[in-house]
Write a structure and sequence with these properties.
With 216 residues, this protein is of the alpha+beta class. 16% of the residues lie in helices and 31% in strands.
């Protein structure tokens, strides 16, 4: 691993602490050092690791013989996930740092174990989901399709509302009117639960993983 990091002009221990993120500059370093690497495999886990074999079917690249690198990216099912500039706020009545009319773009690429194609990462703001998801944490999100038919109550979701707001809540069943409402709960006991009309929900994203503080 040390040889790989030196060749790519990365700091010692960078790959084994990849939760820091794999920004465009570092990605370019790797691809320049190892042009045989498949970019889509490195970013998204798609296709083969190498574009082609070298010399009689034998792989001569240092990266191929570096088992720790291959283990981290392939055997451990790690995928690079786009970190978007948008945020989700814990409070029902709080504003997002990035408003609904501001453009979305990718800030960085972060590695997550168990991520799949289509997952994204965004920042949490506000304190209503602390200490489980404190303000500043990075959440790995996976879109829930057909949530109108089956929500999966009891899990934490980012709800994109019809007015453009993005809120993070643990969603449970609304006993009084489950057909038209869901109950949005906070982790922080200082914030009360509130009923939310389903008609106000535009899309639903399940929180799959959370990176906190120096973990990203």
């Amino acid at each position: 691993m040390k040889t790989f990091e030196q060749r790519c002009n990365l700091s010692t221990g960078y790959v084994t602490s990849m939760r820091k993120g794999f920004g465009p500059e570092k990605l370019n370093n790797v691809l320049m050092a190892f042009p045989e690497l498949n970019r889509d495999w490195l970013l998204y886990g798609e296709g083969e690791m190498l574009k082609e074999t070298i010399g009689n079917g034998r792989l001569s690249s240092t990266i191929v013989s570096d088992k720790s690198f291959r283990t981290y990216f392939k055997e451990e099912n790690v995928r690079m996930v786009p970190l978007l500039n948008i945020d989700s706020v814990g409070g029902m009545h709080s504003s997002n740092e990035v408003g609904e009319y501001e453009p979305e773009f990718i800030l960085d690429m972060l590695p997550f174990k168990g991520a799949i194609q289509g997952d994204v990462a965004i920042k949490e703001t506000g304190d209503s989901m602390s200490p489980r998801i404190p303000s500043g944490a990075i959440m790995l999100l996976r879109r829930v399709m057909e949530w109108q038919e089956y929500f999966g109550y009891g899990h934490v979701f980012v709800l994109v509302l019809t007015d453009g707001r993005r809120i993070t809540k643990r969603v449970t069943k609304c006993i009084e009117n489950p057909r038209e409402y869901v109950l949005c709960e906070s982790i922080n006991p200082a914030y009360p639960s509130e009923e939310l009309p389903k008609k106000m929900i535009y899309s639903v994203w399940k929180v799959i993983d959370v990176l906190v503080h120096e973990g990203y």
